[in-house]
Write a structure and sequence with these properties.
alpha/beta; Beta-Lactamase; 2 domains; six-stranded antiparallel β-sheet; elongated
């Protein structure tokens, strides 16, 4: 179905249908931009001309402009019958016989351009029904193009928003303590980003949005750099835990950054939200770092299928139980059973477990009963800037 096709392919198919139905040689969609007519989709060609998508010509020299402003009719049976058409060199040079063109407008009435078709021969058989067909396709094209324009505008806004945050370093880092429950002491700190600009939203939404526009790795590296600047403030008997997506590992930027650090004081948390295509490649990239003392954790275990694949393929040192399990561990038997299963799996494979998102004494009591030895959450310690957190 047309609705299931990419917009570009859908419009090309629509142009093809119109051209065949109206017995035209060429059909195209033109955008009016800064005084030019730019060809966005073209279907059909003629040996006497060469229309190229993305190229264009001055609007003042086009049929499109004259039809929009009323100097030429939308339906032309024979262009040589109109002096206004004969004033255009293309009329005789191509030549143009029959010509049809209607405006493409968005829902607010703004003019995008025109939906056009022409043949080199006159065609007196064209009528109002054919013009109605062309208008119908133009309305259809307008809806698709408006959706595309909105999507492109939103993408530009996202890019501008993320780039501004990065250029101005409009964020700061906080650190949540990770406790050893039996010893009642802090053994590590997880670095978490906080963003200042509007819209106010969780940090993972900022990072996800950066991923949508191809800037996730650059943003994550910048956040890692900021977190590592605070490493000297962390007590020597504690480690710093850093979050990273698999893509940031693949391009080498994170590996290069970490290789210059005391790896025995770092833990890398691979996020659950991003799938990994080639685990062998990721494992090979991480192996030298792990050999140098870096600990590897799989984050958000229990939140989705990707985390289980990460655990099985990467064989992490630490499995972090997702807060969605912990929040209900004292009241939901299924969550408790899942948590218990992951804890047993960790024990049998030599991994450690950290429970995330502990907020109540009841949750903590159940976790102690399940023999969880390390945990973090608001009950145990709030994320704070390093001066306050490690002090």
């Amino acid at each position: 179905m047309l609705a299931d096709m990419p917009i570009c392919d859908t419009l090309t198919e629509a142009l093809h249908s119109v051209r065949r139905h109206l017995r035209m040689d060429v059909a195209f969609i033109a955008e009016f931009r800064e005084g030019r007519r730019v060809f966005r989709q073209i279907e059909g060609q003629h040996h006497s001309i060469s229309l190229v998508v993305g190229e264009g010509d001055p609007l003042d020299d086009s049929y499109c402009q004259r039809i929009v402003d009323g100097r030429l009719p939308e339906l032309i049976h024979d262009a040589r019958e109109f002096q206004e058409a004969l004033a255009l060199p293309a009329t005789l040079a191509i030549p143009i016989g029959a010509h049809m063109s209607v405006p493409i407008r968005f829902s607010d009435g703004s003019l995008y351009g025109t939906f056009c078709c022409f043949s080199t021969q006159p065609d007196p058989s064209l009528g109002d029904g054919d013009l109605s067909t062309l208008r119908l396709f133009a309305r259809f094209a307008g809806r698709l193009l408006e959706r595309q324009a909105l999507s492109e505008q939103q993408r530009r806004e996202k890019i501008d928003r993320i780039r501004t945050v990065m250029e101005q370093r409009d964020f700061w880092m906080v650190y949540q303590p990770i406790f050893h429950l039996a010893d009642d002491r802090v053994v590590g700190y997880e670095a978490l980003a906080r963003f200042r600009p509007e819209p106010c939203r969780p940090p993972d939404r900022w990072v996800d949005e950066a991923g949508e526009v191809g800037l996730r790795t650059k943003l994550e590296v910048m956040l890692l750099e900021a977190a590592l600047e605070d490493l000297p403030q962390i007590p020597n008997d504690a480690y710093l835990s850093l979050n990273v997506c698999p893509d940031a590992l693949l391009d080498g930027s994170v590996v290069g950054l970490l290789a210059e650090q005391p790896l025995h004081r770092l833990m890398l948390e691979v996020t659950e939200h991003t799938s990994i295509v080639d685990y062998t490649q990721i494992a090979a990239i991480l192996d030298p770092l792990r050999q140098g003392g870096l600990r590897l954790a799989v984050d958000d275990a229990g939140a989705g299928y990707a985390s289980f694949r990460h655990i099985l393929k990467l064989k992490p040192d630490v499995i972090k139980l997702d807060r969605s399990l912990i929040t209900n561990v004292d009241s939901d038997s299924d969550c408790c059973a899942m948590a218990a299963a992951l804890i047993r799996f960790a024990e049998e494979t030599g991994s450690k477990v950290i429970a995330e998102g502990v907020e109540t004494d009841a949750e903590l009591a159940v976790l102690r009963g399940l023999r969880v030895t390390k945990a973090q959450g608001f009950l145990l310690g709030m994320p704070q800037p390093m001066g306050a957190s490690a002090g």
